[in-house]
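Listing S7. Sequence submitted for prediction.
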Amino acid sequence: MKGKTIKEIHAGDTASFQKTLSESDVYLFAGVSGDQNPAHINETYASGTRFKTRIAHGMLVASLISAALGMELPGPGTIYLGQTIKFIAPAHIGDTVEARVTVTEIDERRNIVTLETVCTNQDGKVLLEGVATVMPPK
């Protein structure tokens, strides 16, 4: 399995990855990352926050961008070089999150692609946005 090469990628190309966030996803991410903030894993604590319930880790949501890049566009063999992220709204357990990537710049000489990145929930609400730079497979 091999992703698209720089010659196969065009400005405006887009792809997405979608996942429904489960309670297990949140607990597993807390364990793997070490981020056991009670806002994510303790409903009693979270009920007293401005969100009124547990929220998924922002970086768990952002990691879905990696899936869109590494599995869809450019796809397998892609090397992640950088990412900016602006967190806008929380994701909750049970939300279906779509990570969408759109090619904005192509630097053939350096084999680098820049993509706009956006994660939304099932209602179309923007959860985060940013810019990724990647090196597609040769």
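Caption to Listing S7: primary sequence and predicted structure tokens for the chain studied. The domain at 6-22+64-135 is CATH 3.10.129.10 (Thiol Ester Dehydrase; Chain A). The chain has a mean pLDDT of 97.
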